[in-house]
Amino acid sequence: MLKALRGTKDILPADVALWRKIESSARDIFALYDYKEIRTPVMEEASLFIRSIGTATDIVQKEMYVFSDRAERSIALRPEATASIVRAYLENSLGQEKAVTKLFYIGPMFRSERPQKGRQRQFHQLGVEAIGSDNPLLDVEVISLAVRIMRELGIKDFNLNINSLGCRKDKARIIEKYRKAIKSRLDSLCGECRERYKKNVLRIFDCKNPGCGKVVEGIESGGFLCDDCAAHFESVKKGLSSVGINFIIDPRIVRGLDYYTKTVFEITQKDLGAKDAICAGGRYNNLIEEMGGKDTPAVGFAFGMERMILSLEKENASEEPGMDVFLAVTGQGMLDKAFHMMIDLRGRGLSCDIDYNEKSLKAQMRMAEKLRAGSVVIFGEDEIKKGKISLRDMGKREQKEVDIRDAAREILAIKSGTTSERGNT
Ligand code: HAM
User: Fold this and answer.
1) pLDDT tens track for 145-175
2) Rounded distance from Cα 248 to ligand 1 centre (Å)
């Protein structure tokens, strides 16, 4: 039997309720903060990601799905959305409407990583990009937006870890400092990290090898930021505190993508294990210029949606809403009658279904239970001859005969009764 590709997953009907809850809750919050949705293609020219994410990163070196199309162009399935959004922002001159262009996105991303809990090859991100200001309060807005989404959804036990990589010059100084500090310990690094040492020393932080982790761990960091960037970082920290957001300063956060400058952050969550972030982001003040635009600062984040689901699953054993009414039949010609009533009921906005295979009445009643139907209409030959049907209130476990013309009204009454009872709990 054919199976889904390794690292990809079907999101089955029973799981969809939780996905929709996350999406709709996030959409409501995005509207409050005036972020507008953008949907970019899942494939782009590979060079877009190579230039923006960086040639020495794991994503570009090992994880990108790249293929040649019929015209021999090098195409990539997007491993993330920031680069695509910058491309779309420049291509469509999106910056002209508002001083700060605020965009959000929800969609699949692709990285050929080793699959494990919370790590897939096709996964989904929900994220924002705020393009057009370097004001530290915008960093605070973006981070508080991420925190608000988690609070609204009831995601608990998370830590916000922040750092600043400074401007281009500061980042170069940080890199230089790490190069000097690591030089004498090159022998303790894995082969790949020795390469990273030459190409981009910060990428050693991404190594999953504990030996390499130890090498960078002990290096004294901090004190690299120029006055402007230090003041910027101070304002971000002050702003976060002023809106009641706790954070941990962690100089080891350097992020796995090269475009970051100044504020960077990762949000970890207890249920996901030590290393994996549920959300991550930061500033990328040089990227838009590097992609051919004007000097335009920007900041954003992305949640991993599978990781949101993992941290919510325990509390949200998701219950699909039940059906309003199931139509059961017993006897010749009854299915046709039930079918037409079903069309009428759906027209009135009631959700309903029938058993097209006409199993036994007992089996149909079991099906109605399983579907958590609020009521069941039973079409029996004898009742129909009298112009009647049996109507069972599944909540109260009461059954009565009603005139077929009154059926819709009676079903609605059961539904509103159920709804108001539910509303009172
Ligand atoms: P990232 O850290 O590469 O950043 O990914 C953001 C989040 O996506 C991660 O924290 C994680 O929750 C999720 N994620 C990443 N890879 C996987 C995977 N293989 N399986 C499941 N979840 C995954 C970015 O992508 C940046 N574009 C974020 C950003 C937006 N920075 C500024 N704006």
Assistant:
1) 999 999 999 999 999 999 999 999 999 998 8
2) 20
